Amino acid sequence: MRKVVLSMIVVLFCMSVNGQEFDLSAEIRPRFENRHGFQTLFDESQDAANFISQRTRLNFDFEKSYLRLKVSLQNVRIWGDVPTLAKDDKNNSVHEAWAELALSKSVAVKFGRQVISYDDQRIFGGVDWAQQARSHDALVIHYVPSKKHRLDLGYALNADNETIVRERYQINQYKNFQYGWYHGIFGKFGLSFLILNTGFEYQKPTNDTKVDYMQTWGPRLTYKLGKLDLSLAGYWQTGKLMGNTVEAGYAGGIAKYNINNNFSIGVGYEYLSGKDMTDTSDKVKAFNPLFGTNHKFNGWMDYFYVGNPHGGVGLSDFNGQLNYKKGKFAATIQPHVFAAANTIVDGAGRTTSKTLGTEIDLQLSYKMFRDIQLTGGYSQMFATEEMELLKGGDKDATNNWVWLMITFKPNLFSIVKE
């Protein structure tokens, strides 16, 4: 790892001397967490989890008239996960490694490991909260004919090894995808439209390997009127998944109002389709947010959709927010009222209420310096018996989560040569 870093510094430094711009930046982000009911209801027979995780990044950026390069080397660790005398560190990775070639003033092609993020990050997002974050090995074509219109076309093809003949893809993610994303600005309106075709490979009972394709498509509309910001989105999922027909949907919207320079309020609602627990059909009716930044939605305690199943009954989330910002200080409080979108039954087969509980999230942040920020949060879940049925644990336990994080993001040096 050390030799790779030194070699890249030398190469990119030399490139910047002959060519236009080179930036070297870093990020170090340790985060303490106390989990006492995070992602699932707490079991009082156990103890809370306490740990410190850390993201470390070194970012190399190079740019000239027709070419952009970025390499982001990353180490994600839990303090203490390797011995103090360890010879090797198992936690190193490459978060981004891409090159973008400008074919004209309006067309560019980006190749390699890259973050793909659109709109509010509901379907495609960078998942920056997770210390490892998310990036894709993909090819993306950008077409930007004007400041008000943009079209992206993306393609990915995954394999877990170089082979002589076709072998089944063993990694638990998509085999391939193709997508188109358009965004346009029309006066006070903004319109985005996404069409995504995702292929998932699986092994049939006959041991044959097959790729099923699921389509996710739909629009997102935004509108700004003075101090009021509105957004509304709807997505549908069709096609096949693991041999089963997909019929799922999503609808969500939020209204935000800026009271003054310091305060803003918002109210929102999301519906993600699911399947009745009494439904014995093979149809896939639970909406899948796929590559979205799920931690941003449906409560910061990650009870839903963060690699965390809840019985496939979908979700209804009525939420609000109150934001305050002044100078270097900012605060946000977000309440959520959760319910299942579909029928829940108990162990005796009786239909129950759909109400799942209420979550209160609080976040505070303080910008100590331009490149150093301190952030912390507290979340509390008030769950129902129905949440117990879906998640296990004890609804009457104290289900909360506390975290504190400091982020260092200095720019180490830049070179610009005309």
Mean pLDDT: 94
The CATH first-level class comes to Mainly Beta
Looking at the structure, the CATH topology is: Porin
The SS-based structural class is mainly beta
SS strand fraction: over 45%
Order of helices and strands: HEEEEEEEEEEEEEEEEEEHEE
Features:
20 strands, 6% helix, Porin, 18-stranded antiparallel barrel, 418 residues, mainly beta
Overview of this protein structure:
The chain is built from two helices and 20 strands. It has 418 residues and is mainly β. The protein has a single domain (2-416), classed as Porin (Beta Barrel), CATH 2.40.160. It has an 18-stranded antiparallel barrel. A hairpin with a 4-residue loop joins strand 13 (248-258) and strand 14 (263-272). The longest helix is centred in the first third of the chain and has 17 residues, at 2-18.
Q: How do the strands and helices of this protein lay out in sequence?
A:
Elements: H1 2-18, E1 21-36, E2 49-64, E3 67-78, E4 92-102, E5 107-114, E6 136-146, E7 149-157, E8 176-186, E9 189-203, E10 209-225, E11 228-241, E12 244-245, E13 248-258, E14 263-272, E15 315-326, E16 329-339, E17 355-369, E18 372-383, H2 385-391, E19 399-408, E20 411-416
Antiparallel strand pairs: 1-2, 1-19, 1-20, 2-3, 3-4, 4-5, 5-6, 6-7, 7-8, 8-9, 9-10, 10-11, 11-12, 11-13, 13-14, 14-15, 15-16, 16-17, 17-18, 18-19
Summarize the structure.
The protein has 418 residues and is mainly beta. It is 6% helix and 55% strand.
